[in-house]
Design a protein that fits this description.
mainly alpha, Sodium/glucose cotransporter, 19 helices
Length: 489
C-alpha cells in the first residue's frame, strides 16, 4: 500500500495553498523593518506559535517518534531545560534587545563591544546555521522518498532526493522572497496547525488499528519501558539524563533562542518587550505538549509493530513514522500527514532563509556599505534570500551521508552556540570584558566545541554548557591582559 491519486492531490493542494497564502504579504514590504521585522505589528500569540514552528522541522516530526520507538521518553528531560532557558532569556537578554532599534541579535554585540566582534558572531551564525539547516532540509527527502517510492520507482535515490529537496526549497523561497517576516510568521501559524492536526490524526489512527486500543498499547509499551522519563544518574557520558537535560537543555535554549537570529528575529518583531516575553514563555508550554505528543506516537508505533511486525527491520528509526503513514494510513489521511511533515519543513526553512538574509545584509553588508540607501538594502535582502536558498539546497544534498538527522542537526548547531552564548553573557553580565578578550574567548570556546564534537564521546547535550563556560572564563581572563579595560558602549 502506498500513496494514491487522492493523497497526491491533498499534498499538491497544500503546497499550492501555502505558497499562495504566503504571497498575500508581498505588497506590505516597503522598508527593511517591514521585510525583516514585519513592521512590529505581529501579536504575541502568533509569534509564540511561529517560534514553536521555527524550532520544529521535518527531522523533529520523524526523529522524535523514532527516539521513543528505539528508547523511551528520556528526551523530555531536555525539553524541561528548554523551558528553563526561556525564563533566563526573558530576564537577561530580551530587555537589552529592546533598548534601541535593532534588526539582528549581533547589533547588540556591536553596541557593547565593537564592529569586529559583531562581524565575527554574525559570520559564525551564518556558517553553522546554514550547515544545521542543510541537515534539516534533507529530512524532507527521507519522507518524500518513502511516500513516492512507487511512483518514482524508476528514479535513483539521489534523483528522488534532489527532486524532493528542490520542490520544497523553491516553493518556500517564493513566498519568503516576496513576503518577508510577515509571510514567514503567518505561514508558520498555519503550518503548525497543519502538522499538529496531522500528528493527532496519526495518534487516533494508531489507537484504532492496535487490537485492544489504548489499554493494549499501554501494556506493551509500558512493559518495554517506553514511558520512562527521568534518569537521575550522574553518568556524564549518557546523552539524556535529568542533569544533562535540565542544565544542558537550559544552556542550549538560552543560546538558540537568545543569540540565534532565527528566533531572535521573531522576538524583535513583537509589538513590545512585554509581548516578546509572553511569546517566548508561552512557546515553552506548546513545545512541551508537542514533544510529548511526538514521543507518545513513537511508543504507540512500537506497540503497533509488536502486533504487526514489519516484513524487514527498519534500517533507521527516522523511517518508522513515514513508513507507517504511507503503508498503514487510509488514503487521503496519508496525504494529509505527508503534507503536515512538509509543513514543518517549509516553516523551518522559511525562518532560516529570512534570518540568514537579515544577518547578511544588516551585519555584514551594511558595515562595509553604510551609505547604501534603504531601497537598495531591501533589494539586496531579497537577492540574499535567493542566494541562501541555493546554498541550503546544495547543503541538504551533501547531508545525505549523515547519521540520525535529529541529533546531527542539534550537534552542528550546538558547536557554535557555546561560543555565541559565552560572548553574549560577557556582554550583558560584565563591565570589564573587552572586545579583544571576548574574541579570544570566542575562538577558544568554538575550538573546544569542535574538539568535543569530532574527537570525543561527550554527548551533544553538554556542548553549549561547556563551550559557553569556556568562552566566558577565557574571554574575561583575556580582557585583563590589556592595560585598560573598555567600558560598555
Amino acid at each position: 500500500m502506498g500513496l494514491n491519486t487522492l493523497d497526491l492531490v491533498v499534498i499538491l493542494l497544500y503546497l499550492a495553498g501555502i505558497t499562495i497564502f504566503g504571497l498575500r504579504f508581498r505588497k506590505k514590504q516597503r522598508s527593511l523593518k517591514d521585510y525583516f521585522l514585519a513592521g512590529n505589528t505581529i501579536p504575541w500569540w502568533a509569534i509564540s506559535l511561529s517560534i514553536v514552528a521555527a524550532e520544529t522541522s521535518t527531522l523533529t516530526i520523524i526523529s522524535v517518534p523514532g527516539l521513543a520507538y528505539e528508547r523511551n521518553f528520556e528526551f523530555l528531560q531536555l525539553v524541561l531545560g528548554y523551558m528553563v532557558g526561556r525564563v533566563i532569556i526573558s530576564f537577561i537578554l530580551i530587555p537589552p534587545y529592546f533598548r534601541g532599534d535593532l534588526f539582528t541579535a549581533y547589533q547588540l554585540i556591536e553596541r557593547r563591544f565593537g564592529r569586529n566582534l559583531r562581524s565575527l558572531t554574525a559570520g559564525l551564525f551564518l556558517l553553522t546555521r546554514a550547515a544545521a539547516e542543510g541537515v534539516r532540509v534533507f529530512a524532507v527527502a527521507i519522507v518524500v522518498g518513502i511516500a513516492l517510492s512507487n511512483l518514482l520507482a524508476g528514479f535513483s535515490d539521489f534523483g528522488r532526493d534532489v527532486a524532493a529537496i528542490g520542490v520544497v526549497t523553491l516553493l518556500t523561497l517564493i513566498y519568503t522572497f516576496e513576503g518577508g517576516m510577515a509571510a514567514v510568521i503567518w505561514t508558520d501559524v498555519v503550518q503548525m496547525g497543519i502538522y499538529v492536526t496531522g500528528t493527532l490524526v496519526g495518534f487516533f489512527t494508531i489507537l484504532h488499528l492496535v487490537p485492544g486500543g489504548w489499554s493494549a498499547i499501554h501494556n506493551v509499551a509500558g512493559q518495554a519501558g517506553k514511558f520512562h522519563v527521568f534518569d537521575f544518574s550522574w553518568n556524564f557520558w549518557k546523552t539524556y539524563t535529568f542533569w544533562s537535560g535540565l542544565i544542558g537543555g537550559a544552556f542550549l535554549t538560552t543560546a538558540s533562542h537568545g543569540t540565534d537570529q532565527l528566533i531572535v528575529q521573531r522576538l524583535l518583531s513583537a509589538r513590545s518587550e512585554r509581548q516578546s516575553k509572553m511569546a517566548l514563555l508561552s512557546s515553552g508550554i506548546a513545545v512541551l505538549f508537542q514533544f510529548s505528543l511526538f514521543l507518545l506516537v513513537g511508543a504507540m508505533l512500537f506497540a503497533f509493530y509488536k502486533a504487526f511486525p514489519p516484513a524487514q527491520a527498519f534500517a533507521r528509526t527516522d523511517r518508522i513514522f513515514p513508513t507507517f503513514i504511507v503503508t498503514r494510513m487510509p488514503h487521503g489521511i496519508s496525504g494529509l500527514l505527508i503534507s503536515a511533515i512538509l509543513a514543518a519543513a517549509m516553516s523551518n526553512l522559511s525562518a532560516a532563509l529570512n534570518s540568514l538574509s537579515s544577518t547578511s545584509i544588516m551585519d555584514l553588508y551594511a558595515r562595509f556599505r553604510p551609505q547604501a540607501s534603504e531601497a537598495r538594502r531591501l533589494v539586496l535582502s531579497r537577492i540574499a534570500t535567493i542566494f541562501w536558498g541555493i546554498v541550503l539546497f546544495f547543503l541538504a544534498i551533501l547531508a545525505r551521508h549523515g547519521g540520525k538527522v535529529l541529533e546531527a542537526g542539534l550537534s552542528i548547531a550546538s558547536v557554535a552556540y557555546g561560543a555565541l552564548l559565552g560572548v553574549f553573557l560577557l556582554g550583558v553580565l560584565t563591565r570589564r570584558a573587552t572586545e579583544r578578550g571576548a574574541m579570544v574567548g570566542m575562538v577558544f570556546g568554538f575550538a573546544l566545541n569542535i574538539y568535543l564534537w569530532q574527537f570525543t564521546k561527550v554527548p551533544f547535550t553538554w556542548y553549549v554548557a561547556l563551550g559557553s563556560t569556556a568562552t566566558f572564563v577565557v574571554g574575561y581572563g583575556a580582557s585583563f591582559l590589556r592595560s585598560e579595560a573598555s567600558e560598555p558602549r
